[in-house]
Design a protein that fits this description.
It contains 7 helices and 13 strands. The strands form 3 sheets. A 6-stranded mixed sheet has the order 10-9-8-11-13-12, with helices on both faces. A 5-stranded mixed beta barrel has the order 1-2-3-5-4.
Amino acid sequence: MTGVIIKSTGSWYWVRTEDHKQVQCRIRGKFRMKGIKSTNPLTVGDHVDFELETNSNTGLITKIHDRKNYIVRKSVNLSKQTHIIAANIDLAFLMITLDSPPTFTPFIDRFLATAEAYHIRTVLLFNKIDLNDDLLEDKKNKLMQIYREIGYTCLEISATEHINIQEVKDLMLGKISMFSGHSGVGKSTLINAIHPELELKTAEVSAQHKQGQHTTTFAEMFALETEPESYIIDTPGIKGFGVVDFESEVVTDFFPEFFALKHLCKFNNCLHVNEPKCAVKKALENGEVAASRYRSYLQLLQGEDENYRTNIYDI
């Protein structure tokens, strides 16, 4: 039997079959040893083969089909291992808030670089626009300008006030869409606005720390009754985004505005740091490349962790 994993709790996987049935499955012990260097060898969105266990309603996963893509980050507690967030994604929505909680530019850029590396289109959703004062509104507009000029789709939304929700639904139609972002940015609230029947649990943001509380413990996929059929992948809130190690020579490729200038550099292997006649550094000096993006690039190039001193107020 064949199906797609719609929920994973680490040891058990819920598989949705082609006839829309759900079967709770586990994996063979040796399955974990097939060279998959991850805390989770299977993830939501994976297509798998399974067989029903004797005298049981549960199944045993026997094969994972090839993935067209996946998005991955370093495991929080096991820095040498990776955690696959979801697989076989058509569209990723990264939700951003300027306050309660603030989303930092290194986090945005690391997510975008990872999505670029795995060929996943990303849309930036600027949520809670109804709560912005004049200062935050100005910062939001500057941030949106930076990413729109690079080529990313940016939408202003309010999940609580149902502002521009239809635009999000239109982008999702017929696709497998993943929603990601910090805890408290409104992922579950937005998904409830898109599909109220799901009734996902939501929580308030801490007024003291301006941080969200985890309401989604495991990634989960939901099928929407649309024509054509659409799917939502809800993911747990991410505090930080530790990217899987990139080779220095290819980091430029994951910053589209840098990649577009690469051929103008004097040296083919230019890293845009100390090399003479570097087109990227020239564009930076001329204000054609955002300083925040260049700082994020340097952090990735040097293998540094996210530097939260570079935030929305430094753009």
